[in-house]
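tmp note - Aminotransferase class V-fold PLP-dependent enzyme
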Amino acid sequence: MQVADTTSLTTQKHLFSLPDEVHYLNCATRAPLSRLVEQAGHDAISREQNPFGLRPDDFFSGAVRVRGLFSTLINNPDPDRIAVIPSVSYGMAVVARNLFRKAGIRAGQSIVLVDSEFPSDVYAWDRVCHELNLTIKTVPMPEEFPKGALWNERLLDAIDADTALVVVPAVHWMYGIRFDLEAVGQRAREVGAWFAIDGTQSVGALPFDWLAIQPDALICAGYKWLMGPYSLGLAYYGPAFDEGIPLEESWMNRLESNLFHRLTDYQPAYRPKAYRYNVGEHTHFVLMPMLEASLSQLIDWQPDRIQTYTNTLMEKAWPVLEELGCRVEPINDSRGRSKHLVGLWLPERAEPTAVQQSLLARNVSVSARARVLRIAPHLYNTAADVDAFVDALTNAL
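out:
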């Protein structure tokens, strides 16, 4: 396990190529690539110009390093449980494909979701619900403020002996409200349910302790808080998925697949643990070095220090905006809101998309989601970005 550096971070804007006149508070949509990640991509493309000397092991070594780095980031002791995936939908499809293998699965059970979840975490279950005669149980978000503690209580109450699977994010993708993953994981184990987490809007910016949470699956896209390239992600699959059924039969996922001179000695056995769930051509000669660079950078920065920085950066803005009629969920540990992704409820008179466009005209980038503006700062942001945001929003309201 990594030894924590308690030194406070200052802005890392100098490590990014964002122009000073652009105020990008929108990492939850897509992270800007750091110069380190950008250079890793350029170097990888340069290597592609001349593949002379490429060895069979080079098809595997990059993913080995990335699995190790991701394991360090989430405090997972076994990198062989990490698979390379192209998207969250792919990662969740692995869970759906194998749900029929779950011990005790029976018709009439439910899959528990939270309200207004990202579509990839919802569409994944339509077919398997039809095939296994399961139902979806959606836990509604409270109308009243604060929402986090009550929403967490409702979620725990919804998990019972008839629950087959619980699918929960660490941080809600629109509202920034946190879910107590340790408590949810414990409840799921008590009733014998599988527990799958979409970590896309949290892992990399919010500490994640696999040893404490122990999910059956953790699925992350790489282009948001992992600060990597698009179309490349990572997933943890626990013992429940051992000997399971992959979505595709990639030759690379079989034993001794690095022995190119013996590839037609067809091998029925897979490489161990989560390896069978790797997407085909998971080498990603250009993208993988970029993800490796971003993960190394995040491990150096440390998610808890990112939380501290984004909280300090934004904390003076919230009272100002509340005076304008906006509302912000309180922090409240693991049952409040995150510090890196915050849903700002606008006054009833405001239309979020129109407000977003007004901000964009002033070079301030945030997202409009349902009735909120989603504010998502990172280490590349400075006080000047926050001031520009507050000024633009004040003007818009």
